[in-house]
Amino acid sequence: MPSTITPINTEREKKRRLDDHDSGHGRRPPTDKRTGGGGEGDNWSDRPQGRRGPREKLGRARLGLFFALAGDLMFFIAIVSAFFVAQGTRHIDAYNRYVNEWLPTAIPPILWLNTGVLLLSSVTMEIARRTMFRENDVMDEWLGIGKPITRRALPWLSATTALGLLFLTGQSIAWHQLALQHVFFRSNPSSHFFYLITYTHAIHLFLGIGALVASLMGLYASRVLETRQILVDCTAWYWHAMGLFWLFLFVLLAFFQ
Amino acid sequence: MTPNPKPSPPDPNPQRAAPYSLLPTPSLLDHHTIGRQYLALALVAVIIGTFLSLLMRIHIVWPEFFRNPPIRPEDYLAIVTLHGTIMLFFVLTTAPQSGFSNLILPAQIGARHMAFPRLNAASFWLTALALIVLLASPLVPGGSAISGWTAYPPLSAVASAGPGQALGMDLWLASIALFSIASTISSINTLVTIVRLRCEGMTWRRLPLTVWGWFTAALISIIAFSVLLAALLLLFCDRHAGTSFFVPTGNLVNGVLHSGGHPGNGSPLLWLHLFWFFGHPEVYIAILPGMGLTSMILANFSHRRVFGYRLMIATTLMIGFLGILLWGHHMFVAGLNPFASTAFSVTTIAIALPASAKVLSWIATTWRSRPRYTSAMLFALGFVSLFVTGGLTGPVLAQPILDEYLHNTMFVVAHFHLIMAIAGIFGLFAATYYWFPLLTATRRRPGRLLSERLGRWHFWLSFIGVYTTFLPMHFTGLAGEPRHYAQLSQIPNAAGRMLAATLPLNRHITYGAIFLASAQILFLVNLARSLRRGDLAPSNPWQSTTLEWHPILHPRAIAAASEQAVAVYRSPCEYRTSHAGEVSFLPQWSEDAATSIKPE
């Protein structure tokens, strides 16, 4: 968050120069430079909005994503709290017994493998994300010397996509295995939640794969380095969040039935 | 002196003047356009909603008025449902939180655009789609949903529970799900805009209170709408996937046992928790922007600083925070654990604290200030009045023991209409009168003012109409008139005699409602007339101090001016009145000495 203070009028640049092809990032390459480069005390945060440096747009997109993920977290929290409510709900049956119909769903062991795959995919995603910000490569691409970022990020992004698809395949195998045991969505309060949680998480992950494909295409389609960085960066944070959510949901399904 | 920015030389190369986005911004992505679209949508919705409320009011006292076709009890419930859903979602949430925030917010923080224009447009079109889906629901077989805007299961989970509970209910669910997604997107946009796009010098403490209202409302709508979306998903699964999240064992509806397919053990109470976890914050989403605007307008026309500015920021946040902790007070009669009721009762009464602090600040701001009674000021004062009147019944209903009796009576209807619905609408009216010059101004057209004469008439007639309509409802409620009853006559036995006793007062309420609705014609006439032929507005017609009136942030500002940097040097509402009665004020963008305005 920019710590804006009352600007000192004499030192303020009142106008953006229109003649120098400045597209809002102050003609800087999108590297991870924190300062404005003007020496002592010069800080991007003191600049007017729209000129706060090469990472302004990135920060904006990231913040938006974090707010969205906070909302998404609330979505899962609502479902998880419903899980515990359903688990504790009892009623009086026809024989006047106070019963609970909750039959714990034994999770298919393949979920352990899937969890490992998803965690691994988070690692590859993080490597891909970091390659987008390596300063030397960024300078090379920005100056038009070569495409080192694309070259380096491509395999890691592809690996993440493949691992994500592998995870989804694993999930569908798990559903299939449960179906063979005649455990369906509608069978039991516990199975409701097993399927609901895994389905909604799978849908989220499917959207994540869409974002990965968009980033992969963006590596070639987008001419602006900053846009490519934003795409990969936001996809990565989304992917990590889905990994983290899955970890919690998996622990819930595995140990809190 | 006010820094009058010198008109900059015209841009020699206007194509390049779009520095923020990769593609040139088409007008559909412009935040002013989106704000106006939202407001137009809300206007359509509020007209439909008002029409439905008149149908209800007339039917409740003169059911024989509707003969061909008659309004059956289930039709009446469908009207109740549509009225509630349309008004709450598409008027009270959409207009302040998306409409005016798009139109005004960027300029108020010194920005020229919202953070994510494309998401913003997507959010509007999703909202429009949601409204269309909702309005299509009366046309499908069985008609629209009849379970109220709260859609309590198990009735809402069983398609055969009523005429509208099949496809109509599905459409309702789809519409609200779309609306939740749209609202979440819009809130993300608002939040990022406020956090990231504030201009130089716009510190958090200098943010206008309207922005604080939007900020807090956006924060809680991210929390609340996600939970609503989850609840809608669970209900949808109950209806179509054979699950039983909310369907209990031995669910007897219309004499038919609905256990087939469902394994049972669901809890309807769970829906109530999830729904009201959304539903209560929702009313704060509707009212918080209005509260912020009221503070700013009262200070503006009283020529005073806002009393206790930091306290106002704190209470806004506190209301938002407490607002998500007190959903249980909607469930006192639903079979909640009495201990939980007590806890929710305490949090509910606790919210009286920040609310009273707000009222005190409003009164202290205007106290002996000899304000300018413009229409906007009148509506802001009306907001305060309604907030107090409606608020006084809050602590009454917050007591579980009193709520047992009052919960399903018209007393609650009177309470929430005064404090949330009508106060929210008064906030919207104040906003419209205040910001109409910015609402009408475009690059090519000047801003216009609404007619003040008509505005004053509109205010006084509405004010009288609101109180004649909603005050007596408290008494019919206390006398035992239940909610959701289609008619009060032709009911047998003692209940019929009790209801018939409330009929005279109910007729009075209906006259009041018709009067109130007719008074709004003045507003529509004023709108229609002033859009084209209203007085031309000066650049800062209200001697306002906030940035939306900054000459280079004005919608009329030429493209070249959009390159000029904007900076803020002081808090809003820096007014000073000399002993001679001369008022001076410093806008937030003013760098130094006071400018004087002539006393009225």
Question: Can you tell me about this structure?
Answer:
The complex is a heterodimer of chains A (257) and B (600). About 3% of the residues of chain A have low confidence. In chain A, a hairpin with a 5-residue loop joins strand 1 and strand 2. The relative contact order of chain A is 0.13. By secondary structure, chain A is mainly alpha-helical. In chain A, 63% of the residues lie in helices and 2% in strands. The longest helix of chain A is centred in the N-terminal third of the chain and has 33 residues. Chain A has one domain: Cytochrome c oxidase, subunit III, four-helix bundle (Four Helix Bundle (Hemerythrin (Met), subunit A)), CATH 1.20.120. Chain B is an all-alpha fold and 600 residues long. Chain B has a single domain, classed as Cytochrome c oxidase-like, subunit I domain (Cytochrome C Oxidase, Chain A, Up-down Bundle), CATH 1.20.210. Helices cover 59% and strands 2% of the residues of chain B. Chain B contains 16 helices and 5 strands. In chain B, a hairpin with a 5-residue loop joins strand 3 and strand 4. In chain B, helix 2 runs parallel beside helix 13 and helix 9 runs antiparallel to helix 10. Chain B is globular and about 75 Å long. The two termini of chain B are 21 Å apart. Classes of the chains: A mainly alpha (257), B mainly alpha (600).
Describe this structure in a few short sentences.
The complex is a heterodimer of chains A (257) and B (600). Chain A has 257 residues and is mostly helical. Chain A is built from six helices and two strands.
Features:
heterodimer, A: 257 residues, mainly alpha, Four Helix Bundle (Hemerythrin (Met), subunit A), two-stranded antiparallel ribbon, 6 helices, elongated, B: 600 residues, Cytochrome C Oxidase, Chain A, three-stranded antiparallel beta sheet, two-stranded antiparallel sheet, 16 helices, 5 strands, 2% strand, disordered N terminus
